[in-house]
Amino acid sequence: MEIWTERPAKTDVEAVVRGYFSLLRAGRIPEAEQLIDHHPVRHVLKSLWTGSVEASAIEDGASGSPAADEWEQDLSWLGELDLADFHWGHTGSSFYVEITYRAQVIEVALGFWVRPTDAGWVLTGPATYW
Fold first, then answer.
1. 121-129 and 37-38 beta bridge pairing
2. Within 13 Å, how many C-alpha atoms sit on residue 77's CB side?
3. What is the pTM of this model?
4. Span of 19-23, 35-39, 115-119 with lowest mean pLDDT
5. In the chain, what is the straight-line distance between the N-terminal and C-terminal CA atoms, in Å?
6. Is the Cβ–Cβ distance between 123 and 114 less than 8 Å?
7. 129 φ, ψ to 5°?
8. CA dist., res. 22 & res. 75, Å (int)
9. For residue range 52-104, what is the model confidence (pLDDT) as tens digits?
10. Are the C-beta atoms of 20 and 36 separated by less than 8 Å?
């Protein structure tokens, strides 16, 4: 996990989130979890799936919805996600990042916090925002 001795710059924090997301997209979940003080990744993946693949299937009028556990069995769909804009709160300690699926912003965003600990400053998250 990245630990900063001083409050990190926004660009440094955003770089960690980009690295985290790159690992997620590659299906390297355990490595992604090591970059931040992480909330359960299963919830994050399920929310991203629901807001992207599942929502797209509904919009496209697909005759059948994806299998209930498909998001866990085949992580290739993560490769179609990307980060969009970062939105920082006024205190500079929290932000959310928009997510795109096939170049369209989806309804799910990921929220993160920069917080002090005894060891230094860490990045915590993500929470899922709808």
1. parallel
2. 22
3. 0.88
4. 35-39
5. 27
6. yes
7. -110, 135
8. 13
9. 877 676 665 555 555 656 777 888 899 999 999 999 999 999 999 999 999 99
10. yes
